[in-house]
Predict the structure.
Amino acid sequence: MKESFLEQVANYILSHYKNKLYNVAVVLPNRRSISKVKKYISEKQNGPFLAPECAYIGDFMLKLSHLQYADYDEQMIYLYQVHTKIAAQYEETAMSFAEFSSKAQAILQDFNDFDMAMAPMETLYKEVYNTKNIDIWDISGENDQNNSRYLQFYERLPLYYQLLNEVLLQQGKAYQGAVYRRVAESTDTIIPTLHYDKVIFVGCQRLSEAESLLLQSMTMAGKADVLVDADKYYVENTRHEAGAGIRKIQEQLPNYSLLFNNEHFKNIPKKIKIYSLPHPISQAKFLPQLLKQIQEEQKDKDLDDAIVVLPDESVMQAVFESMDWEKFPKANVTMGFSLRNTIAYELVDILLQMAIEAENMGNGQEKVWNADTVRALLNHPYIKHLFKEQQEQLCTLQNKFCKVYTQSDLEPLLMDCELLQHAVLYKNDMLLLMQDIRHLLQYIAETQLSSSEYAYAYIVTLNDYMLRIEHLLERVSLNDAASLRLMYESYLSVCTIPFESNREKSGLQIMGMSETKTEDHKTVIVLSVNEGIIPKGRSIKGLVPYNLRAAYKMANDEVYDADTAYYFYRLMQRAENIYLMYVSDAKGESEPSRYLSQLKTELTTYNPQTKIEEYNVVYLQPSFETKNINIQKQEKELAVIKENKHSATSINTYLSCSLQYYLSQVLHLEVNNNDATGMGVYSADMGSAIHEVLKTEAEKYHFAVSYSKQAIKEKILQAYLNLKGKNYQAQDFTSGVNSLLLEVAVEYVDKYLKYAKEKYAGAHITIEAEKNIECDLPADDKPIHLKGCIDRVDTDDNGEAYILDYKTGGVNKNNGRLDSLDVDEVFKDKHAKAIQMLLYAYLYHKHHGNPIASVELVPLRDFTHIVPLEVKDRVMDQQFFDDFESSLLSFFENNMCNADTPFAMCVDEDSCKRCNFTPLCLRLQDNE
């Protein structure tokens, strides 16, 4: 590999300041680079010498400001105190700390960013206020009170800024942006007092306005050198985002010439291998295999000049668990890992959710929790490990079919672990709850995880932050678990575990992307080279809109994307062997990063010596032994079946998955009807609304001279609002996906009414809509109850009935076709729609005795594809219905009501993906 950037830095320092190193300060972008610069300088010196002072840039700025950094929890507390003070000043009720903490994150980010940008606070926030005012302007004047409170919040933000900085300065503290602003505004007094002859700033790729002002003043005074590592490949190409920050530095420091503008991309032959993998975790599994291959190719056991970069920190744990660390004793890890990605964080989150449910459910005598939450607790790895001697008891609890668990259900298990008992059965004291959870985590760490270095580190660090939350609780009042959970999530969202090994250690390096700022290696391996990860995309959570951020030179998503591009390309410029992995899942939800396209289309032209190869890494899915649940039918279950009223839906549910029938129709468990499409209102609700309108309006519109689409729209909207068990509001359908679905429903009804009006023109028919019919199927011991709701029956002058069933979903021409009425032919899962049509015809025939001309499925999407019921070589006469009755009775007696046929899981696992009971049978969880 060519001489590294930090080696160039060391050579520059020695060639220019060798005789006065003691009067030189070297400011670097991270602490790891400090030890490397010192190492390179010492290697080039003969004998003892006075080394230059080396400092991390954040520490250097702090030294110039004569302040200390305020911890994040301090900033949150002081900002909340400012909020309560302002609320009191205006005689208003202050928000709770938990409610305010979500806003505090955005406020603090904005304060930091516009201080770094040296933005005029009063002017900026005046424009923010005006922008928000325009956003919510309403000519009708509605919601004036809410809008007024909303705008007051933005109007008062300058006061928040002023009071927060005052209270922090009283403590001799500040946040980062305030420190940088203070230094930039004080250069006239700071520069003359510097005791260094020269301050060398190393590794800048972008300067904030505060940094730019400082460096401009120092370079003009002859006090600073700025050493930037770059390559002409991306600097001189004005469209290349990796060079955006460098080009900006050239504008900000016009008298400064770029010191290290190299041509490594042009001169160094590069072998680039790009790997497509099916899942983020598969990258971690593939990495050891790739490292072994590289070791063999390069004959380098320790991979002393190789680096593994993890832009997506969530895969770090999987990487650690996949690595054979004995083969890499010199490996060095330097990166931060978000606590939110740890299973320790997940356990605390589950316990806080249980606390919320305990407050909101039950009768006051004992605590009650949702079944899903309890099963999440019982399935948690730490809890499983904690109760490894009680696995049978744990399994019995997990497999219990119920909607809720009570305190009585869990107490036998909790008796074996007093710490978990305290955490689950807390006494409505938020501080005590946090202490109980922290003690539980500490116990798990000390007794179960002492042999796992990283798992132990996760809990120790999490406990440290939870202790800080306890200190916060001593200063602010929280009275409910929901607020505590909000505080926990808000506070922990910015907390990371700093993994930092020996900075001078050689061997394989493992780092996050931002830690690579001054790293150079011959071999580079980067995981997760996906769009949305590198570059990350939207990450700003402040209150200042994008256009104002750009106008006031505040950091924005484009700036952060350019930073990432610089890290990516700078890391590769001296590398010779480059291995890039990205995730390409079958659903198309993961896209390769645009950087890969740039490399393939631009770099190979820029340097023909660059060779790029692509590989598709396929992992065969391991075969799992599917857990099949079979429940034998007892007398009580059979009694329930015989008492039930059976519809086509319940019969088809039984045929599709008799276990689901057991849960829904025998145990009568309720489920959340989550829409599979994720499209606002549930698809089933749209069908219900359309059916309701056609039920009440069809006959009137068929024989009316004209009708209004607006009238139809109003009827459908009212049908939505009248749906039982729903809480739709009219405003839910004024915009977004719900508005589109309402328009789709109007189109369905409008087109059908036009079709029907033409079809029935001049006909003499009687229309019956939404006809509920019940009858008993004669059986030996007790009749079987049947029911159905026929969408529509049209009867002509000859008394013949035409049975119609509307379908808002898809149908095909084979849905109504059967070869015979034999029980083995009819009662199959694939004949669900035919069974429905047969049952409607049978019910109508039993109830009226009228001849039936046809039974048809009417797809509202396309009326030209009406699907009739067709049984090969049969007409719907009396013998037809006798034969169907015989098959129907045989199905009930020999299958559904047969004690020897257990309730069993469905055969087709794809059906499980559409089932709401999978959290109970756990089939999909077993196969993930």
